[in-house]
Prior knowledge:
Low-confidence stretches: none
Strand content: 5-15%
Strand order of the largest sheet: 1-2
Distance between the termini: 8 Å
Structural class: mainly alpha
Mean pLDDT: 85
Shape: globular
Radius of gyration: 15 Å
Number of strands: 2
Amino acid sequence: MHKAGVLEGVAKTCDDAARGKLAAVCKGYYVDPFARYFASSVALCNPGALLNRGHFIRVAAIDSICSQFLACAAAKGKLKDAQIISLGAGLDTRFWQLSKQGIRLRRYIELDQVSV
Length: 116
């Protein structure tokens, strides 16, 4: 992180991704009531349909994987023991979305660079 608190290098991608996700949400590509809390206060610009669709596809794929995992754990009666570890989490809102749905896991761990 730069002395002024500005993210640099790879760490900066989390802020770019958060703003991109918010743009996709604002355009109606998917619903994420928490996206606006994670995007920086920089003026929102629409990155275009290709990037909006890319954010949608990534979110849909990870949602599908998490849903399948949680359904499997629930079917085995092990949901309370389930753990999710998100590597390179950035400013992901998945924990808050699961919490809003009432899903309680043993642990939800997000790992990323210290500056993030």
